[in-house]
């Protein structure tokens, strides 16, 4: 990723099979990362995602068994100071087995989780470091009152799982149904 900005990962449980799920249900966040080193260049390598080709994350062990969609996304904020944040997202289908009995939340829906006037998308990376306001709900860690999960649920992924941790949509089959929209530079805001 050669854009400064955060990475986020959401999941949504399919009501049946992930293959047939359109992603129109509730989504919960399982991962987010923004700035890793305040002392580096805030327009580049201060961001955890800078110069990486993947987003690495852990699925909480208490996630209930079932089929899910995973939505990793990277938001380029180099143009956010003029309302031009860039959204890079994709998705993959996974089947969780040996999970737990947690209740994921808080949840949001896409589109609708983000608004054009959110501080996250009207943020300046120029003139030095400042705290970045992460978009979306709080991260669900799988543990009530905990900030991290110590175990990982087992995941059986479909062939599309290679898309789980990438921000490029090129060469990947649309695994989230025909109306799940992916945009590289969405100037018409619909997230």
UniProtKB/TrEMBL annotation:
Domain Auxiliary Activity family 9 catalytic, first and last residues per copy: 2-129
Top-level EC class as recorded in UniProt: oxidoreductase
Secreted listed as a keyword: yes
Entry EC number(s): 1.14.99.56
One GO MF term: cellulose binding
GO CC entries: extracellular region
Record InterPro entries: AA9, AA9_LPMO
One Pfam family this sequence matches: AA9
Gene3D superfamilies linked: 2.70.50.70
Superkingdom per UniProt: Eukaryota
Reaction catalysed by this enzyme: [(1->4)-beta-D-glucosyl]n+m + reduced acceptor + O2 = 4-dehydro-beta-D-glucosyl-[(1->4)-beta-D-glucosyl]n-1 + [(1->4)-beta-D-glucosyl]m + acceptor + H2O
Requisite cofactors: Cu(2+)
Statement: the UniProt record of this protein carries the keyword Transmembrane: no
Keyword set, alphabetical order: Carbohydrate metabolism, Cellulose degradation, Disulfide bond, Polysaccharide degradation, Secreted
Places the protein is found: Secreted
GO biological process, alphabetically ordered: cellulose catabolic process
Record's comment describing the protein's domains: Has a modular structure: an endo-beta-1,4-glucanase catalytic module at the N-terminus, a linker rich in serines and threonines, and a C-terminal carbohydrate-binding module (CBM).
General function of this protein: Lytic polysaccharide monooxygenase (LMPO) that depolymerizes crystalline and amorphous polysaccharides via the oxidation of scissile alpha- or beta-(1-4)-glycosidic bonds, yielding C1 and/or C4 oxidation products. Catalysis by LPMOs requires the reduction of the active-site copper from Cu(II) to Cu(I) by a reducing agent and H(2)O(2) or O(2) as a cosubstrate.
Protein name (Swiss-Prot/TrEMBL): AA9 family lytic polysaccharide monooxygenase
Organism: Penicillium arizonense
């Amino acid at each position: 990723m050669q854009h400064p900005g955060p990475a986020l990962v959401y999941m949504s449980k399919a009501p049946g099979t992930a293959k047939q799920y359109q992603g129109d249900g509730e989504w919960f966040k399982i991962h987010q990362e923004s700035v890793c080193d305040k002392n580096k260049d805030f327009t580049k390598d201060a961001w955890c995602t800078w110069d990486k080709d993947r987003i690495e994350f852990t699925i909480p062990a208490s996630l209930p068994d079932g089929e899910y969609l995973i939505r990793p996304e990277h938001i380029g904020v180099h143009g956010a100071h003029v309302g031009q944040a860039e959204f890079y997202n994709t998705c993959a289908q996974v089947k969780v087995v040996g999970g737990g009995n947690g209740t994921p939340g808080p949840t949001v829906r896409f589109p609708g989780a983000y608004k054009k006037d959110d501080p996250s998308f009207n943020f300046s990376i120029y003139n030095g470091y400042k705290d970045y306001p992460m978009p979306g709900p709080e991260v669900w860690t799988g543990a009530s009152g905990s900030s991290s999960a110590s175990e990982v649920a087992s995941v059986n992924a479909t062939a599309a799982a290679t898309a789980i941790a990438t921000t490029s949509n090129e060469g990947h089959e649309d695994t989230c149904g025909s109306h799940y929209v992916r945009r590289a530079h969405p100037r018409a805001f619909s997230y």
